[in-house]
Amino acid sequence: MSHQYTDEEIIRVILEQRRQRRRKMMRRRRIAALLVLSLLILGGCGAFRALHHTGDSPDKTKNAAAAKTVKIRGTVFIDAGHGGSDPGAQALNRTEKDDTLRLALAVRSALKKRGLQAEMSRTDDTSVDRAKRGEIANRKGAKLFVSLHRNKASQGQGVEIWIPSDDPKDSRLLAENIMKELKSAGITEDRGIRTGTLPDPKDDYQENKTPDMPSCLIEFGFISDETDNRLFDEKLNTYGKALAKAIDHTYQSLYET
């Protein structure tokens, strides 16, 4: 015989079912809330790590992104003197070919930030014929040519710059701009801008003879002088930026005005 529920029992059953449904609904809401909170926490941590993984501020991050998109305005040529089997000058446990390469790489990096593509005669310790360096610059379509060297003597300090013997005004402008920026960066002595070669003012160094564009050869301090060497090491990046600034200003004057 089936049990007949009273009205009171039926009400209790209905109320219990409602309570169970409410408990299930509350559990679901709590679970959903926990999931949302977890996602928010994880997302925030990810954004924090993305912003701080290099220790950069938002402004630095923007600047870094902008640096990657600098428009290339033109091409110049940076010649790291000597190299490979040709060590250049040697003194005080230093070799000219090593110093010129270090400086050339610093100049190339600084030029890139200014939108100038720097082609190079060499990027490592390899031999390149002196006469061919200007020819390479010609093939690359470079607009300016700068050859980096170091001096040597029993006595002597400072920087001197050599330009072609016929004293072309554009090469002199390049040399003057370079010397100005190097003096601002700090050198021991301005030894002047000279034409031709040391033995013969009417002749030209190979680096000034073959390029079709304005050119100069820089004797960047004396490798035989301790003060010049100390400044070369301490101010390497500063000198690189100074050279890049001078090259940039010359490029603007000759090709962008």
Automatic annotation (TrEMBL):
InterPro entries linked to this entry: MurNAc-LAA_cat (IPR002508), N-acetylmuramoyl_amidase_3 (IPR050695)
One Pfam family from the record: Amidase_3
Recorded superkingdom: Bacteria
GO biological process, one term: peptidoglycan catabolic process
GO MF annotations in UniProt: N-acetylmuramoyl-L-alanine amidase activity
Ranges where the record places region Disordered: 191-211
Positions with biased composition (Basic and acidic residues): 200-210
A GO cellular component entry from the record: outer membrane-bounded periplasmic space
Residue stretches in coiled coil: none
Domain MurNAc-LAA: 134-248
UniProt xrefs under SMART domains: Ami_3 (SM00646)
Protein name, per record: N-acetylmuramoyl-L-alanine amidase
Record key words, sorted: Hydrolase
Cross-referenced Gene3D superfamilies: Zn-dependent exopeptidases (3.40.630.40)
